[in-house]
Write a structure and sequence with these properties.
ten-stranded antiparallel sheet; alpha+beta; three-stranded antiparallel sheet; about 600 residues; about 15% strand; flat
C-alpha cells in the first residue's frame, strides 16, 4: 500500500512516456535474446497467504525440422525430454471466415459465434465443445488452438503457442541467442501449418461484408522501377475497387486484421502475454510477378507467417550501429543503399521468417504465383532507453526537492572552461566540474522512481492490449457463464452470489494492474478493450485502501485459487464487496459454477 501511494506521489510530478502502437516441421530460424524481466518483490502481508505456484513443464512437439540463422549456423532440433508432452489435443475445426458486420447480423448468429454487437463479451478460444473425437483433417493451427482451450493457465497458453510458432526452435534458445540479433528462417514443408488463421477468401469476405476503408484499414501499393506508389482511392474499399487495384499490380495491405478476424484476434491475444508488449499484425496480399514495397527497415520485431503462395525475401543487416534495433522505421530505401543480403529465400506456406528491428528487408512475388502473408509485430518502443527517458526527469525532480547538493549554484566562472570551445582544455577546474557531474548523476539512482514508472508503462500496456480470448472453462466459471436470461416475459436464473466460502482467482494473468494515482488506487483492466487500437479510453475500477492487500493477493496468486473469506480485508463486507465487483466486471472466475441462492 505505502509503495503504491509513494509511486502515485512521484508520478504527480510528471508522467512516463506513452508507447506508440506497434505496428513445426522443417525450417530455419533467426532471433535475438530477450532481456530479463524484472521480478516484482512480493509484499510480506500478501505473500504469506499465497500458495506456492507449481512449476509446469511446457509441452513440446516431435519434429524433424531444421533451423537456420543469418549468422550462418544450422541447428538440429533439440532432443525432446521423455514425458514432456501433454496428452494429445482433441482437434476441433476453427471458423476461418471473418464475421460480417456485427450490426447487420441477427442476434442468434452473434450468440452462436460468441459475439455481441457491442463486443462486450469476449469470444472463447476455439476448442472442443460437443464432439471430442479426433478429426484427422484439422490443421496444426487448429490442433494447437484446441490444445490451448484445455490449458487452465493463460501464462502456459502463451508459452505453448509461442513454442508452436517457433517449432522446432526451442524458445529459450531463441531468446538467449537470436532475439534482437539475427534473422531466422523456419522451413516446415507443411503447407497447412497455418490453415485457418487467415486466407484470401477471408479478405474477400471482409471487403463484401465489413466496413473497410482505404487508408484506414486497407492500403494499395506497388514498387516499380525503384519507386514506391500508394494508390488509395477515397472512401470504402469495395470488392470492385480493391480487386481492380490488385489486378493492376498493387499489393493489398490489411491493417489490423484482428479487428475483423476472430482467429487472428485470439492468436494475438494469447501471444501478447508472452511478449509483455502489444502484439499487432498486418496482412499482405501481393499479385504474381510484383513487389509492393520498397526496401526499408521497421521499429518492431517482425514474425512473417507465409499463408498462401510463394514470395522471395531478401534480408540485410543494419548498415551501421545507429540503425541497430531502430527506434523508428526508415524511409523507402533504394537498391543502391543495400549491401549483400544475409538471408535470401523463397517462403512457402507454413514457413516462418523472423528479423529484428533495423534489419532491412524487401520481398517480391515471382513465377506467376501470388503471396499472402501475415506479419506479427511486437516490442515497439519497449527499450531501456524508453524506460529511462521516463525515469530520469522524475529522478532529477525528486533529487532537487530532497537533496540540497542538487540545489547548490554552479561555479560563477564555469563558462570560462566549459563548453565546446573549451573541450580540449586541460584546466583543472574543468576536470573538477566533470567529476562533480559524474557524482551527481550517480546519486540520481537513489531518487529514481523505477517502480512508479514501471506501473505507468504497465498501465499503458493494459490500454494497448487486445481484450482476452476466453477458453471454455474461463467462460463457464466467470460472469459470462451465468445462466441468467430473458424467458417468458421476465429474467430467470437471477440471484447467484459469491460467499466467503467461494474460491476465486483472476480470469487470466496480466489482464489487470493496480496503480497508484493522485493518492488513490485504480485497477486498470483489458476485458473491455476494443480489438481496434485505442478505440476506447483506458478502463479502471477504484480500489479502496482497506482492500489493497486483498487485491495484490489476487493479482499475485494466479493461477491458484483463494477463498474469499481469506482475503486480507478488515471486514467480511470488504471481502465480498471487492470480490463481487471484480466478478461482475468479468475479472474473476470461481472454482465451481455459482449456484442460485
Amino acid at each position: 500500500m505505502d509503495e503504491l501511494r509513494n509511486s502515485a506521489a512521484l508520478l504527480r510530478r510528471g508522467r512516463g512516456r506513452r508507447r506508440r502502437q506497434p505496428q513445426p516441421r522443417g525450417g530455419s530460424v533467426l532471433a535475438l535474446p530477450l532481456r530479463p524481466r524484472k521480478i516484482r518483490r512480493h509484499r510480506r502481508s500478501a505473500a504469506s497467504r499465497v500458495a506456492a505456484l507449481r512449476a509446469r513443464a511446457l509441452p513440446s512437439e516431435d519434429s524433424d525440422s531444421k533451423v537456420e540463422s543469418s549468422a550462418g549456423a544450422r541447428e538440429e532440433p533439440a532432443e525432446r525430454r521423455e514425458g514432456s508432452r501433454l496428452a494429445e489435443p482433441v482437434p476441433v475445426p476453427v471458423p476461418v471466415h471473418p464475421r460480417p458486420a456485427l450490426a447487420s447480423l441477427p442476434r442468434r448468429l452473434l450468440e452462436r459465434a460468441g459475439l455481441s454487437r457491442d463486443q462486450g463479451s469476449p469470444a472463447p478460444l476455439p476448442g472442443p465443445h460437443v464432439d471430442d473425437r479426433e478429426r484427422p483433417g484439422d490443421s496444426p493451427l487448429r490442433q494447437v488452438l484446441a490444445e490451448l482451450n484445455g490449458i487452465p493457465s493463460s501464462r502456459r497458453r502463451a508459452a505453448r503457442l509461442f513454442e508452436w510458432l517457433l517449432a522446432p526452435l526451442p524458445p529459450d534458445h531463441f531468446y538467449r541467442r537470436l532475439w534482437e540479433r539475427e534473422a531466422v528462417l523456419v522451413r516446415r514443408q507443411d503447407h497447412g501449418y497455418y490453415e485457418g488463421l487467415f486466407s484470401t477468401a477471408d479478405l474477400d469476405s471482409m471487403l463484401r461484408y465489413e466496413d473497410v476503408h482505404f487508408g484506414q484499414h486497407l492500403d494499395a501499393a506497388r514498387y516499380v522501377d525503384g519507386r514506391r506508389e500508394t494508390l488509395n482511392p477515397p472512401g470504402r474499399a469495395l470488392p470492385a475497387a480493391a480487386w481492380s487495384l490488385y489486378q493492376a499490380g498493387c499489393s493489398l495491405r490489411l491493417l489490423c486484421p484482428q479487428a475483423f478476424s476472430l482467429t487472428v484476434w485470439q492468436f494475438l491475444a494469447v501471444l501478447q502475454e508472452q511478449f509483455g508488449s502489444m502484439a499487432g499484425s498486418n496482412v499482405y496480399l501481393t499479385p504474381p510477378n510484383s513487389q509492393g514495397f520498397a526496401p526499408h527497415y521497421d521499429d518492431i520485431e517482425a514474425f512473417v507467417l507465409q499463408l498462401e503462395g510463394r514470395k522471395l525475401w531478401r534480408v540485410y543487416r543494419p548498415r551501421d550501429t545507429s540503425e541497430e534495433l531502430a527506434l523508428t522505421s526508415s524511409p523507402n530505401l533504394s537498391q543502391e543503399d543495400l549491401g549483400e543480403p544475409v538471408l535470401q529465400t523463397v517462403l512457402e506456406p507454413g514457413d516462418l521468417l523472423y528479423f529484428p528491428r533495423g534489419f532491412i528487408h524487401q520481398a517480391e512475388c515471382q513465377d506467376g504465383v501470388h503471396s499472402l502473408h501475415l506479419t506479427l509485430s511486437t516490442y515497439q518502443r519497449n527499450t531501456w532507453g524508453d524506460f529511462l527517458e521516463a525515469v530520469v526527469p522524475l529522478a532529477v525532480q525528486a533529487a532537487v526537492e530532497e537533496n540540497v547538493e542538487f540545489r547548490r549554484g554552479l561555479p560563477r566562472d564555469f563558462m570560462d572552461y566549459m563548453g565546446a570551445q573549451h573541450s580540449d582544455s586541460k584546466d583543472p577546474r574543468r576536470t573538477a566540474f566533470m567529476e562533480k557531474v559524474r557524482v551527481l548523476v550517480a546519486r540520481l539512482g537513489h531518487f529514481a522512481p523505477v517502480d512508479a514508472v514501471a506501473d505507468q508503462r504497465a498501465k499503458d500496456f493494459i490500454h494497448d492490449s487486445l481484450p482476452p480470448a476466453l477458453t471454455d472453462r474461463e467462460r463457464a466459471l466467470s460472469v459470462h457463464g451465468l445462466p441468467i436470461r430473458w424467458e417468458a416475459g421476465e429474467p430467470v436464473n437471477v440471484g447467484a452470489q459469491l460467499t466467503t466460502e467461494t474460491e476465486v482467482h483472476m480470469l487470466q494473468d496480466g489482464i489487470a494492474r493496480l496503480v497508484g494515482e493522485g493518492g488513490r488506487l485504480f485497477l486498470y483492466y483489458t476485458v473491455e478493450n476494443s480489438r481496434v487500437y485505442h478505440l476506447e479510453e483506458p478502463k479502471c475500477l477504484e480500489v479502496y485502501p482497506q482492500q489493497a492487500d486483498a487485491m495484490e493477493l489476487l493479482l499475485r496468486s494466479y493461477p491458484e485459487f483463494v477463498r474469499v473469506g481469506d482475503l486480507p480485508c478488515d471486514s467480511v463486507e470488504d471481502q465480498l464487496s471487492l470480490a463481487t465487483m471484480l466478478y461482475d466486471k468479468g475479472l474473476l472466475l470461481t472454482k465451481t459454477p455459482l449456484v442460485l441462492s
